[in-house]
Structures are given as structure tokens and as C-alpha cells.
## 1
Amino acid sequence: MFLHCWLALLALMPLSFGTKAGVKVKLTEKGLEYGRQLGMASIQQKLKTITVPDISGTEKVPPAGKVHYSLTNMKIMDVGLPQSEVDLVPGTGFRLAIGNAFLSMNGNWKVKYLRIMKDHGSFDLNVKGLTITTSIAIKSDETGRPAVSTVSCAATVGSASIKFHGGASWLYNLFKNFIDKGLQNALQKQICPLVADAVSDMNPRLKTLNVLAKVDEFAEIDYSMVSSPTVSTSSLDLGLKGEFYNIGMHQEPPFSPSNFSLPPQISDMLYIGVSTFTANSAAFVYNKAGVLSLYITDDMIPRSSPIRLDTRTFGAFIPQIAKRFPGLKMKLLVKTVKNPVISFEPNNATVQATDTVTAYAIQPNATLTPLFVLNLDISVSARVFVSGMKIAGAITLNKMDLTLGTSYVGEFQVRSLDNIFQMVLKLVVIPQLNTHLAKGYPLPTLGKMKLVNTQLQVLKDYMLIGTDVQFMG
């Protein structure tokens, strides 16, 4: 795994400029340090692929005269990267510096001298003081996905020392300084192209980012970037659209994101701010899809409840129902008539919903006879938490208010039905909504990414997730 693991956190999704962010992401220096640790192992493996072409030539070596030599089958045996650091470069991306690196290799040698004398053996080469500095830029490719490229690279080899073994190795040792220099130059020329290749290797992986996160059969989330990343010396900040859409039909809601800023916290690797815009766009989408409407029948009420959905129970409060429709089961249709409004205040997330409840008597032939329509205003509190790579939640009823919309059975006291409908909300409606909320809504994800030591705070107009990150495999 190369630096793509955390580079993707810098540029999670494609660009859609001109829109305010519904979700904001901050990658801190702690996150960069974790990326450096992951990246060094991959760079080390890349440098082990260095190939040095066979070298041959002729040198005058007293007293043997002209010596024809060749160095072949040169292979890297070990690479060490004991020192490295990564820094953010404001306005560009980041800089990776590797110092005091070393490598060792071996190969075979052959010589021919005095026209008829031939010999061969092996050699070891040790390179020390290797330094690499590269600057990497982050941009959007033609598909809107993030892409990285090498802006500059410099590599120097401090020293290269070769030692020959076997046969007439004394001949090589006489002109080893010449060979040391040649091998040093050959290695130095290969390092930056290999680093550039390693950077380019990240792009196919970045293309696998989930640019449109599917939630369920009704909704998906657009996490596209709405502006270029803002790079400072301490963090990289970016804005994502963070908007829910109906699958296959992207309709904008009748409201827009408001500006918000993440606090200057840096103790975690990654911070994700999810605004009320994102939450309210979800409510808009699910309401439009009809998911927030629910038919309730008596078999959905727990058997232990003394209150049943039938004309006998309701007839105790509205006598004309029992008289006109004796002994019938009832059905309720709870329907959201306005988009629910979700608000975030410090340590408090609430949802305000406006619904209607239509009560029907179920006739013996299964036809429905309307009895009344009530207006239902509900306030619930939401507990929001992170589960795996998703945001999940659960709601509890704060209060409800019933008013009469239409009656088909004459006048009655609506307040007398408060206990019945509180029971219906608590035992049927809210549990069904919580089942859906518990499934969660995906966060931006890359590969086998795992959030650890995660905390979620509800703040003014947004939720803040602070977390460390691990990449598994």
C-alpha cells in the first residue's frame, strides 16, 4: 500500500465548483505522519526494483596493460529508509523528503587481459547517504476524480563502495574508484523516475474512490469536491458537496448549504464536519421517495397492549365510530406532508415533522372507509453515532401536537386521542424509523479503510467527527 491511502483523504471526490460545502474534511499533520509510515514500506519495495544495466569497458591497469571488463547480473539485495518526513506545501500539495537511505547490491564480474588471460568472480556494492526530495501536486483529472503528479524530484547518492571477490579481483580493485563513480551515476539516474512511477501508480487506485455512495434503493450521497483543497502548513482542508439524491434522479432541494468552519483541533488524524444541509437533504430525498409514509394496522401493535386499532377502542372516545362501524378493524395512514427539518445545536440534534394521520375502518370486503384526518406535529431528539464507516442514529419522542383536519363522523375531542397516538408513535412509527436509521449512511470511503478512536460531537449547525484511520491490507 502506497501513499494513496492518505492522498485520497486529501482529494476524496471529483470537483463540482461553485457550490457551498455540505461536508468538510480536515487532514492533520498526524494523519500525514500515518501516511508517511504507510508510504515508506511501499517506496522501499519500489526502490528494490532498481535495475542497473550491464557495464563493460576497457581500462589500462599496470602491470596487466589493457583490461577488458564487464559487470553483469546486478541485483538489489536490500534498501533501507531510516529517515523520512512529509510536509504540506501551501497552495500545492505536499513534499516528501527521504534522508540517509542506503542500499546494497551484488553482481558478477569478468575480465580479459594479456590477450589470453580470463577470470571471473562476484562483487558487492554498498550505497550510503542516499537522499530523495520530491514535491507532489494534487488536482482533478478529466473525470473529476483526484489525480497526483510529481512536480519536482532531486536524488543524490552520497557514496558508492564496491568490493570484488574471487579470481583476479585485484585487477578490479586497482580501478574500483572509476567503477564506483560509474555505478553511483547509474543508480542516481534511476531513482527519480522510480519515485515518479510510484506517484503515478497511485492514480489507478484513486480512480476507485466511491464518488457516489449508495445508501439503499432510494438514496445515494454525492461527496464530490466543491472547491480545490486549501493547503496550509498544518492541515489540508476540503469541501465536499455532501448531498443526498434520489437514485437516478438528481433534484436539488429547496434550500442551500450555509457556511460553517471546522474548529482548529489537530489531535486526531481526520476531522469530518457534516452540516444540517446534508441531513436535511436526506429528509428531502426520503420524503420525496415516499419512505416517510406508513400504513399501520392492528397486527403491528404489540399483543400486550390494551389499546387496539379497532372501532371498539376508538369508539370509547368517539362514540359515533362504534355505532356506525361496530366490530371493525382500523388502519392508519401516517403521511409526512412537509419536509422534516433537522437542526443541530450543541449536544442536541432535533427533528421537526409535520404529518397527517388518516384513520380508516376496514370493511368486511376490505374496502377502506375514511373516518377522520388529524394534523400531527412531532418533535423528536436524535442520538447520532458512528458505526463502522457509517453515520447512524436513533430517535426518541419529545412531544406531539394533534389537531383536527377533517372528520367524517362528526365532531369529537381530539385531545382524547393523545394517549392512543403517543402509543402508536412510540410502539410502531419510531421503532420502524430507528430500524432504518440503525443501518447508517456511508461516509467517504477508500478501500479497506477503518475509523478508530472515533468521537462525534453535535455542534451549532453541524456534527463533528474526529477520528484516527487505519488501512487494513
Note: The chain has a mean pLDDT of 87.
## 2
Amino acid sequence: MEAGAADGPSGGVEEALSCFSFNQDCTSLAIGTKSGYKLFSLSSVEQLDHVHGSNDIPDVCIVERLFSSSLVVVVSRTKPRQMNVYHFKKGTEICSYGYSSNVLSVRLNRQRLLVCLEESIYIHNIKDMKLLKTILDIPPNPTGLCALSINHSNSYVAYPGSRTTGEIVLYDGHALKTVCTIAAHEGALAAIAFNASGSRLASASEKGTVIRVFSVPDGQKLYEFRRGMKRYVTISSLAFSMDSQLLCASSNTETVHIFKLEHLANSQPEEPSTWTSYVGKMFMAATNYLPTQVSDMMNQDRAFATGRLGFSGHRNICTLSTIQKLPRLLVASSSGHLYIYNLDPQDGGDCVLIKTHSLLGSGTADENKENDLRPSLPQSYAATVARPSPSAASTVPGYSEDGGALRGEVIPEHEFAAGPVCLDDENEFPPIILCRGDQKGKTKQS
């Protein structure tokens, strides 16, 4: 759910934002510009709350916020090989790391921080920023395409296993080992995304016509959707709803597609009870005698709902969120706007645009408004990482903010000190000066 500098401009269109990303539970939006970065809260349709902004770092090309905490990761084009981690409420830099080549993308959850370079991936323990693993010699990945499950009880990582084909490598960021490889598409990958629990993985190729969903960790295909047939497009983002019932996809076209995950790809249809259903069954049976490409096309599900954009060519990202108790489609564009649509979860159809926000305004809203609504908590870095998110993410089946401890899962001692969420002791986190590092020579190879 991020668009950054690595994606590059589309068709020479002038862009107001250099990067933009939704946080892990879609409750916040971060944007980067030539003058700095801004964070917004997404708790209201009418009001876009400006949570924080900084002009201390120019020409920001990556900005990522950890849930609704004070932890933010920033990379600047002026120092593209350096990653900076800040506690923005305290106004302090937690740490900075230098790498051997440009940082192309950053992903994080409450357990891991992932840094993706073109030919390597660094996995840090987010509690103390210790480098746990370096995955070297990955196929060239010039866009920094990768995904990290937001469920820190598994912390699955996905990245391209080939530059020319759509192979996905599934890596266990908790156990630090490769799980499997998935032959997802014939062409090279364009987008990948996990659902909230880390049990499903969606993917799209550079052709952009077919979107597939696989089970995790076994890599079995569950769903296959057709975005379109007339033209190839560039898929810019994929995002599941928090309950994993819907999947949205945006591209360089004027349409955002939303698919409903209700019929498994390999499920057997029930016995027909009417003449039309009987004919339908015979029709589907006939596809077995058609060329593979034709039969595959006939078995692919179509979009459940669509959102029409008033533009095309701008980089954009989409997500599905619940705002003020109603499902919404959100689209952020490099033009500097956020579009909010109503989504009918029962009937689908055309989503209705109800609000357009400018992301480049003066930010006159009180930056402390979001903070005033929350109880006072310890402001240590450890407490920031451990703080539970106010979103509904913790209620999603299979997702656990406690890291799985309540289900009896064993958590390694190096991950948490006294417990999975008891990280409010300042002494548990090393002094900031000890966190500074250079990853050019200190790596644990995979």
C-alpha cells in the first residue's frame, strides 16, 4: 500500500507527491514531498486530520508510519542509501542505517522492519533495530517490490523470485527461513499484498489482466479474477479489506476494481436445481474442451464493484477501510489528492465518490487533536512499538496484536523481554547512539 519514487512518474505527468502510503491498518496516510512529509489520520470522511508534518528532511521518497504510533521511517533522495527512524511526538531520531545501495522500499509491523534494496533485503528486529537477516543475491528488483504481513505472529515476507516470470518467494520473517516459492504468473510481477492475518497473498503481473490469490503458507491458488481483457495495464496497488472479504486493485487507468472473495477457485459447484443452473453447469463443463487460455478466461471471476476516477496516468494507491462504521474505498493520487468513495458491501456496483481532500493544504487542523483523543501512555520507543492499534485489526480472525502468546505460541526470548507487549521500560531499548549502524559490511547472509 505504498507508492514511492521507485515507481517513477507515469507518462510524464507532473506529480505533486513523491511518495504516499497507507499505514498497516489503513487508519493513517503518509505523504512525502520535496519539502518534507506529512501524516494524516483517516478517522473521518469530512475532516482530514493533519497529525504531524516535518520540513527537516527535504525531498522525501519513502515515508512509512507504524500503525497509529509515533514511529515513522523516512528516506530522502538527498541520501537515498540511508534510512532514518523517528519518534515524531518526542521530536527525536531513534536511529539511522546506511546501506550499500539505494533503499527502494520499507515495510514494517510490530515485530519486523524490512528494508528492500535492488538485490538484497534486510530484516531488522523492530524492538531494538538489530539486524537479524540479510537475504542476498535476490533477482534484480528495481522497484523494490515486496510485502510484509502485518500480523507479527508470522511476519511472512513475499518478494519476486524472478525478473522475467511471476514467481513469488515466500519467506518466514519470524523463523528467518524460506517457506516456498509460488508460480503465480507467466509474466513478471507488478504487485503483491498480504491480507491482515497473513493467511492469503494477492498478486498481479505486469500485464495487469489477471489477479490471483494464494493461501499462505502452502501457496495454493484460491481465487482468480480478471481485471479486464481489452488492454494491458500497470497495476499500482493491491489491498485486502481488514476482514479479507474484498480485494481492491488500482492501476494507471481511470478504474479501481474491487473483487469479492467468496467462491474458491477449485470449489465444486452444487447440483443444479433449475433449468438455467443446469445449462450453466453444462456451459462450464464445455470449457474443458476449449483451449486453455479460453477456458481459464471463462472461469475467472469479474469485479464485484468499481470506483471511477476522474483521471488516469497519475500514480495512485487504493485501500479498503471502515470509516465512521461504513465501508469505504480510499484512493490516494500523486496529484496530491485523497478520494473517498462509499462502497455497497452487499450489492457492489459503482462506488460513489463522496469526498475529495487536498493533501497539500496548509494543515490548519490542530496537530494535537488526534493525540488528545487518546489516553496518556509512556512515550518510550519500546512503548510506541508495543502500543495496540485502535483499529479493528485485532478483531480479524487469525490476527493477533499479542503476537500469538494468548494462543500458547512460543515467542523467542530475543523478540520480547518480559512479554509480547510489555515494552514500556526505557532500559529495554538501547540508547539512540547505539542504534546507528552501517549495513555495508555488517550482514548476516542468507
Note: The longest helix spans residues 275-286.
